[in-house]
Write a structure and sequence with these properties.
The structure holds 2 protein chains of 2 kinds.
Chain A (H helix, E strand, L loop, with lengths): L1 H21 L17 E2 L6 E12 L2 E12 L3 E5 L6 H7 L10 E9 L2 E2 L7 H7 E4 L10 H12 L5 H14 L3 H4 L12 H14 L4 E5 L7 H14 L4 E5 L3 H7 L2 E6 L2 E7 H6 L4 H7 L5
Parallel strand pairs in A: 1-11, 4-9, 4-10, 7-8, 8-9
Antiparallel strand pairs in A: 2-3, 2-5, 5-6, 10-11
Chain B lengths: L10 H45 L4 E10 L2 H4 L7 H5 L3 H12 L6 H8 L5 H12 L7 E7 L2 H7 L16 H12 L3 E5 L2 H4 L12 H32 L4 H13 L4 H15 L7 H25 L3 H9 L4 H29 L3 H5 L20 H9 L5 H31 L4
Antiparallel strand pairs in B: 1-2, 1-3
The chains are: A alpha/beta, B mainly alpha.
Chain lengths: 297, 432
């Protein structure tokens, strides 16, 4: 099975290679028509952390993700944009197998994390999710103290030898998430008593406390005001020196501000991938162009 | 109407034409709700009023003061007194002797029997307990308050009318005359009925108490709680969190829901067939009662626990799974604590149901007349609701108030259990 995929992948790679040569930046490119659902742009990167080949997701009869191939590089922030229901969140959830928790959801295709197939039977989801952390759309702190919220991950994974070490991890994580100065005096307070932006930063602190390699962010700022959003965006810029970050966002401005590369999804198809600057200023696909100019979505 | 063009009407006109009707229907609905609330409260109030008004007298008991001469000769013993001699003395005879001495004019055998009828047969045990407790009483003469018989009790409490013909009441004219004499001497009094709370069942209403049944209920409920809570919660957690969703689990779910609706007597039959006839556990034992009630309450607890687990927001599960917690860690550290108040409420409701259950216990022999207080789960016992059933079936007038009083105790326990459920819920409840 994997061999077949490999072949297909190679074939597609070749196609992309052709397209690349046709639409080299210095040439005036032709816009790809709306009906064409082949991915345009460069999906591969030179130093990938995660590589996805022909990922398909079905919710029962609904085909939610269609043949998506995409790489996520090291120390890269990749933004996924697209209208509602286009499958960007679903794709993100494939990367740490959160879709396992949904009934009637089947994921096919190959997703490699550092060359390992994460959907392989021998792969345990517990270490996988420890390596690929996730921040959800709605802040979801545990209804426990702030300290407990952050300490839970390191504790279950045995990252700290003793209490002082655990405390150090908690403090560092909160500092890196930019929350420390606000809550250093009330670590015993319930995590749910914080404001929305603080809660989301707490969730980020919780995610980075276990020192993952990749952080998946599913619309982390959709419920936040511009100031809290700015804090989180600064944080992402800082974090990308250590982690790979994949962020799903509805805000094109946010994608333009923070990401290095952007992927545009449309109705389950990955339409276009490219450097953020190029994609927003010079989209190749008509659908991308329509979306970013606000013609729909 | 025809010349009225609908297009000329604005939305606000449409709204206004229907507004009065809408408000009227809202008011009507509110009034109906209020009415049903009042009907409900009226029924509850009637229930409580009828039970309390019938039962409150049972908390008092008539005692008659009698001069008892603890004569050494009567005990046929001299100092030092041996316990055995004291314990086997004829205290019934002592009561009778004291009564004869109080009313010297009573000569005939029939009249004497009527005279003895004023005092309960339990008075003899009362005297024995006094002497055993304090042997120095022997040789003294003392005024003692002795338990009156149930008929005297009823007369004093006004449940027996003096006006009816002598043949229609249980106390003869002569007995009432003696009583009036005693009342005139201030020797008849209503005292707090301690025996009602400390005695086991008895054929004599004035000696009958609920302690035996209460102990039986507590032992039975302990067995029920110890078995049904862990089994119920474990089942709910497995079905809700771990089990794959397929037709087998659907089948199990449907069956659990059906079991909740099975008449409780069926569980009694099952208990009789399995626990008593097949396994060979003793009849009438709280152990078997507890097992049967466990079967009966399990569906309730499982359904309530599953509902509590379902109500935990999935975002909490995702949060835990997202940082690499295993399913077990997610459930035990995050889901269970949040679901716990709901599970607890379900369990206590199940327990309250079990506390009030009668039918299945009849099938396993807990309906027997048991005087002794059970000391363990293998001893024959009865439970409060069955005791109420037994007393309600008894012909003596004095059992009427005891039945109501026992119902009050049972209701009291139910209210306490529900209050505990509410308190625990408040204590453990957390917002997310």
């Amino acid at each position: 099975m994997s061999l077949v995929i490999e072949k297909q992948w190679n074939g597609q790679n070749a196609q992309i290679g052709e397209r690349e040569s046709i639409r080299a930046p210095e040439q005036t490119h032709t816009i790809v028509s709306r009906e064409d659902r082949q991915t345009v742009g460069i999906t591969a990167v030179s130093n990938p952390r995660i590589r996805c080949f022909d990922v398909n997701v079905h919710y029962g009869n609904k085909h939610a993700i269609k043949n998506v191939s995409l790489d996520i590089g090291r120390n890269e922030i990749i933004a996924m944009i697209g209208p509602s229901g286009c499958g960007k969140s679903t794709f993100l959830r494939c990367l740490n197998r959160m879709n396992d928790t949904i009934d009637h959801c089947t994921v096919t295709g190959k997703i490699e994390l550092d060359g390992e197939d994460i959907n392989d039977k021998s792969i345990d989801v517990v270490p996988l999710r420890a390596r690929v952390g996730m921040v959800f759309q709605k802040p979801n702190p545990f209804p426990k103290s702030i300290y407990e919220n952050v300490a839970f991950g390191p504790r279950i994974h045995g990252l700290a030898k003793d209490k002082t070490e655990l405390e150090a991890i908690v403090v560092t994580s909160l500092q890196r998430a930019g929350l420390w100065n606000e809550i250093k005096d009330c670590l015993d307070q319930s995590g749910t008593s914080l404001s929305g932006g603080q809660q989301q930063r707490l969730c980020i602190a919780r995610a980075i406390a276990i020192n993952p390699e990749v952080i998946l962010m599913d619309e982390p700022c959709s419920a936040l005001d511009p100031i809290a959003t700015a804090v989180i965006e600064d944080l992402m810029n800082e974090l990308c020196s250590d982690y790979s970050i994949a962020i799903v966002t509805h805000s094109m401005q946010q994608a333009a501000r923070v990401s290095h590369r952007t992927a545009y999804f449309h109705l389950g198809d990955l339409i276009e991938v490219g450097k953020t600057e190029q994609l927003f200023t010079n989209p190749i696909h008509q659908l991308t162009s329509d979306y970013i100019t606000g013609r729909f979505g | 109407m025809n010349d009225l063009k609908p297009s000329k009407l604005k939305t606000i006109d449409h709204v206004n034409t229907r507004l009065a009707k809408r408000h009227a229907s809202e008011k009507f609905f509110q009034r109906m709700g209020l009415l049903s609330l009042f009907i409900g409260i009226a029924f509850v109030f009637t229930l409580f009023f009828s039970i309390v008004s019938k039962g409150y007298t049972a908390f008092q008991q008539t005692f008659i003061q009698i001069e008892v001469d603890f004569d050494e000769q009567f005990f046929a013993t001299e100092k030092p007194y041996e316990n055995e001699t004291l314990s086997f003395a004829d205290y019934g005879g002592l009561v009778k002797k004291s009564l004869r001495e109080m009313f010297p004019g009573v000569e005939s055998r029939q009249e004497r029997r009527l005279l003895y009828g004023l005092i309960s047969t339990g008075a003899a045990y009362q005297l024995r307990d006094m002497v055993m407790h304090d042997p120095t009483l022997v040789g003294q003469t003392k005024q003692v308050w002795l338990l009156a018989s149930d008929d005297v009790d009823m007369l004093i409490k006004g449940h027996m009318e003096r006006e009816v013909p002598e043949t229609d009441r249980r106390l003869r004219d002569v007995q009432i005359a003696w009583l009036d004499q005693l009342i005139a001497e201030d020797s008849v009094s209503l005292k707090f009925n301690m025996g009602f709370f400390t005695n086991g069942d008895s054929r004599e209403p004035e000696q009958a108490g609920i302690w035996g049944a209460l102990t039986g209920s507590i032992l039975t409920l302990m067995i029920t709680l110890l078995l049904s809570f862990p089994i119920g919660v474990a089942t709910a957690v497995y079905l809700e969190e771990f089990a794959p969703k397929n037709k087998w689990t659907d089948l199990i779910e449907v069956n659990i829901n059906n079991l909740a609706a099975v008449p409780s007597i069926v569980y009694g039959l099952l208990g009789l067939a399995v626990f008593i006839n097949f396994i060979g556990f003793p009849r009438s034992a709280p152990l078997v009662g507890g097992l049967v009630l466990t079967l009966m309450t399990l569906p309730t607890i499982i359904i309530a626990s599953r509902a509590a687990l379902k109500s935990v927001p999935p975002s909490i599960r995702e949060a835990a799974l997202g940082i690499g917690a295993s399913k077990m860690q997610t459930v035990f550290f995050h889901v269970l604590p949040l679901a716990f108040p709901g599970m607890l409420t379900g369990t206590i409701i199940g327990m309250a149901q079990a506390l009030g259950e009668t039918a299945p216990l009849l099938m396993i022999g807990m309906v027997a007349f048991i005087v002794d207080i059970p000391s363990g789960v293998f001893d024959p016992a009865t439970v409060l609701p069955v005791q109420i059933f037994l007393w309600a079936d008894s012909p003596e007038r004095a059992f009427v108030e005891r039945t109501s009083a026992a119902i009050m105790v049972l209701l009291g326990f139910l209210i306490v259990m529900n209050a505990v459920a509410v308190m625990l819920r408040r204590k453990f409840e957390r917002r997310w």
